[in-house]
Specification:
10% strand
Length: 145
């Protein structure tokens, strides 16, 4: 028997509307439109049998997942995994895309043209040192999952 995987991104968030980078930042929440999106996905897949539900632990994904599962009769535990988090853009998180374009034009061009080559090295707003390739790290994270 074949396995069907349904992948859903979280609904529209406040950071999406503001044009901010979310990454691993967990400060944005779903907008009304994002909540509607979650409900619509739930309706669209309501008749599909589901054996397991996995989600990122961020509040925007938790809320989207809850909305998708709200009207289902097949009660199940939602399994949260850090390995389902979005790409870690630690040096850019909470910044506006427009600010990134003006402050980090070379990195933004790299992000657009060859994101797998984007390299972050420096100190994040929280004072931690960073030295990593976000897309390579995301690939390794997804592979772990």
């Amino acid at each position: 028997m074949a396995t069907r995987v349904i992948i859903v991104r979280h609904g529209e968030s406040t950071y999406n509307v503001e044009g901010r980078i979310q990454g691993h930042c967990d400060k944005s929440s779903l907008t009304q439109r994002g909540q509607t999106m979650g409900t619509q996905v739930g309706s669209a897949i309501g008749s599909i049998a589901i054996d397991a539900v996995y989600s990122s632990p961020f509040q925007r994904t938790r809320e989207t997942t809850a909305l998708i599962m709200a009207d289902r009769t097949d009660s199940m535990t939602i399994l949260y995994s850090d390995d389902l988090k979005e790409v870690n853009l630690k040096l850019w998180e909470e910044l506006l895309f427009t600010d990134i374009e003006s402050k980090f034009p070379d990195q933004m061009e790299q992000w657009r043209s060859a994101p797998h080559k984007l390299h972050f090295k420096g100190t994040a707003a929280d004072g931690t040192d960073v030295d990593f390739y976000p897309i390579v790290d995301l690939y390794e994270q997804a592979t772990r999952f």
